[in-house]
Amino acid sequence: MSNKPVLDHFQFCPSCGSQAISLIEGKRVECPDCSFMLYYNPTCSAGALIFDRDGKLLVVERANEPSKGKYGIPGGFTDLGERLEEVAVRETKEETNLDIHSVRFFASFPNTYTYRGVSYAVTDTYFLAQVDTFDGIEAQAGEVTGLHLVIPEKVPQEQWAFDSLRKVIAKYLAER
């Protein structure tokens, strides 16, 4: 299965079934028969950059594709009606069993997330967060194969799961 952007998977109008649909500028699908229009906007994700007192970053070792075995941070996709800060808190709890606080926006970067042959446009948002303790930390079975505290500048670039994560780590290190 080849990796294709979401809109390239449309062959029929989702509203009337017409094959006369057009892909316009890679941004939307239009149907001249019923005037249906579907815009392809990026989805959002949020992650938490959690450092210990020594400046080590908490990373999750990904259990699944994409980027299985590489380092990510606790995070995930936004559910309908959810604020990005809530995503960072929820996903951190789910993936690590940690309760974070003092969640504040740090940066965002565009990304592409390819899953089961479909490439999705994503805006990844990153938040700095704190924990009172790492006691009780536990990797979420099936999603995370390991939790590690790493010195970010010593992690090889290819070990980071996503290009946007490489960029946010570089931004953090440059501003520190």
UniProtKB/TrEMBL annotation:
<keyword id="KW-0378">Hydrolase</keyword>
<dbReference type="Pfam" id="PF00293">
    <property type="entry name" value="NUDIX"/>
</dbReference>
<dbReference type="InterPro" id="IPR020084">
    <property type="entry name" value="NUDIX_hydrolase_CS"/>
</dbReference>
<dbReference type="InterPro" id="IPR000086">
    <property type="entry name" value="NUDIX_hydrolase_dom"/>
</dbReference>
<dbReference type="GO" id="GO:0016787">
    <property type="term" value="F:hydrolase activity"/>
</dbReference>
<protein>
    <submittedName>
        <fullName>NUDIX domain-containing protein</fullName>
    </submittedName>
</protein>
<feature type="domain" description="Nudix hydrolase">
    <location>
        <begin position="41"/>
        <end position="175"/>
    </location>
</feature>
<dbReference type="InterPro" id="IPR015797">
    <property type="entry name" value="NUDIX_hydrolase-like_dom_sf"/>
</dbReference>
